[in-house]
Amino acid sequence: MTQSLLLAAIVLSWVVIAALDVCVLALARQVGVLHERIAPVGALSAASGPAVGELAPRLTLNTTDGRALTVGARQATGRPTLLLFISAQCPICKVLIPVAKDFAHEERLSLVFVGDAPADELRALIKRFSLEDLDVVNSTQLGLTFQVAKLPYAVLIAADGILVARGLVNSREHLESLVVAHETGITSIQSYLAAKTAS
After folding, report:
1. Which of 68, 80, 159, 196 has the most CB atoms within 10 Å of its CB?
2. What is the DSSP letter of 186?
3. pLDDT in tens for each of the 199 residues of the chain?
4. Phi and psi for 90 in degrees, rounded to 5?
5. Cα(81)–Cα(104) distance, rounded to whole angstroms?
6. Whether the Cβ atoms of residue 55 and residue 131 lie closer than 8 Å to each other
């Protein structure tokens, strides 16, 4: 009797193990299917504010070192301008600032950091990240113009003043998606997915 119970327990345990193996394989397959369905995420663009594909609003502002800087004007350098809205209170901004510096250098973009903070706070940020040689603007008006609600936020303006892409960014991939939007003419990853679904 004891041997038959032991044998039954062993058989039952093997059946349970086999059932668990089948469940794990089924779950692995589902994870693979979900992974294929998840699209790459680019900069999340906002519905409000200036429209992509039109002339960017033209504003003349002063940099933190007193130079006049015109946003939205035709650039004599022939380079697109990347506006990156940042704050000393934003942890993601602090990670993205050095990434944006390298990215703008590699992609040959004119990089402008835009803050909306007390002057002392912005000066501390400039010193911490060695932004002295770059254009830094402290402007509430610029953020309101582009309807910036969350940070970090990026706006890419072509050398001819056309607004080519904009959106909430938190990684190098998001910054790259703005340049890809410029190169392909697809304004955002959301537009790409909508067009792909429609076709």
Report:
1. 80
2. -
3. 677 777 888 888 899 899 998 999 888 888 776 655 544 445 555 557 788 889 999 999 999 999 999 999 888 889 999 999 999 999 999 999 999 999 999 999 999 999 999 999 999 999 999 999 999 999 999 999 999 989 999 999 999 999 999 989 999 999 998 888 777 766 555 555 555 565 5
4. -105, 110
5. 9
6. no
Domain boundaries, the chain: 1-38, 59-198
Q: How far is CA 93 from CA 59, 145, 165, in A?
A: 24, 20, 19
CA distance 81 to 109: 6
Copy the structure tokens of residue 31. Answer: 């994870």
Helix or strand (DSSP H, E) at 76: none
Distance, CA of 14 to CA of 29 (rounded, Å): 23
Fold of 59-198: Glutaredoxin (3.40.30)
Q: Name the burial class of residue 122, with classes exposed (0-12), middle (13-18) and buried (19+) by CB atoms within 10 angstroms of its CB.
A: buried
Check: CB of residue 156 under 8 Å from CB of residue 164.
Answer: yes
Structure tokens at 158: 């072509």
Give the C-alpha separation, 71 to 136, whole Å: 12
C-alpha to C-alpha distance for 92 and 132, rounded to whole angstroms = 21
Cis peptide before 152 (omega within 30 of 0): yes
